[in-house]
């Protein structure tokens, strides 16, 4: 089996089909017995998975990188989990570094969704330390995780991006209703003004909610924001109960190959308890905004 690297505590190697069961067990141990998103038996074939083994050869950690559906120039880092008794020994740091290097080599942007149920913010701190920039919060996205902590509320995640070259935002003009117009700058967009698009408004992209056995997660819709049509479209969606979740800067691509930015809106069939959504102190302002906006 291909060994990638070894340190005094762990051996890191590529994940294979035989690892699926133990990786799913690690997830069940962390997220609950009814964990609704196990890796399928052939699931390792489609992702770039890496496992950490301890000195006894036991698999104690995992993370993968996979294509980010609908966004050809982007990869998603995910599935990160380390067995509780092996934590705080640098396994996650190695796993994220390895996948970041792979994405950089492949010329991709990397996105990730650090969890919000963990009040210590371990995953959010790790991503922050590795240069990921927060683009917003996706409330109530993944049902039936950590029921002892979250009850019936689906797990929320932050949405973060790591670009290796250039700015996350490029200098494209943005058309947002006043309610959301200062959010890009507060989330790190430095340009103002910007250039117009050559192509026509590409239309919105709707995402089906994640479904657990009994509970359904929030719905999400992505609206391209670089065309004047964006404002009316977003206002109409707000009237239908949709609210700001996050931005996906530069992740849109028109048929003619022009990049553009999306705003992602969410809608949920239950009131959301934001007290169950933990973010780093630097993002408290956004959580407060979303509570007011809800
Ligand atoms: C998050 C997790 C993967 C970290 O694994 P780990 O091997 O213990 O992490 P590392 O030892 O490599 O630590 C790397 C960094 O993560 C952050 N971190 C890890 N554990 C932390 C904790 N308990 N509290 C705060 N920050 C923490 C720190 O920034 C740390 O860097 P530092 O040691 O320089 O402070 C692990 O705690 C875990 O499996 N948690 C449950 C599942 C989860 O949250 N997965 C991520 C889903 S997005």
Query: Main sheet: which strands, in order across?
Result: 1-2-3-4-5-6-8-7
Helix content: 10-25%
Uncertain ranges: none
**Total number of strands:** 12
How many discrete domains?
Answer: 2
From the alpha carbons, calculate the radius of gyration and give it in angstroms.
19 Å
What bound compounds does this protein have? Answer: coenzyme A
Oligomerization status of the protein chains? single chain
* Overall 3D form: globular
Provide the residue-averaged pLDDT. Answer: 95
| Separate helix tally | 7
Q: What gap, in angstroms, lies between the N and C termini?
A: 50 Å
Strand content: 25-35%
The profile of the biggest β sheet is: 8 strands, mixed
Query: What pattern of helices and strands is seen along the backbone?
Result: EEHEEEHEHEHEHEEHEEH
Please provide a written account of the structure.
The chain folds into 2 domains: 1-110, Gcn5-related N-acetyltransferase (GNAT) (Aminopeptidase), CATH 3.40.630.30; 113-294, no CATH class. Helices cover 22% and strands 30% of the residues. The chain has helices at residues 20-31, 91-105, 122-129, 147-150, 183-186, 229-239, 284-293; strands at residues 3-6, 11-14, 48-53, 59-68, 71-82, 109-112, 133-142, 155-162, 205-207, 219-224, 243-253, 259-267. The N and C termini lie far apart (50 Å). Coenzyme A is lined by residues 30, 80-82, 87-93, 114-115, 118, 120, 122-123, 125-126, 129.
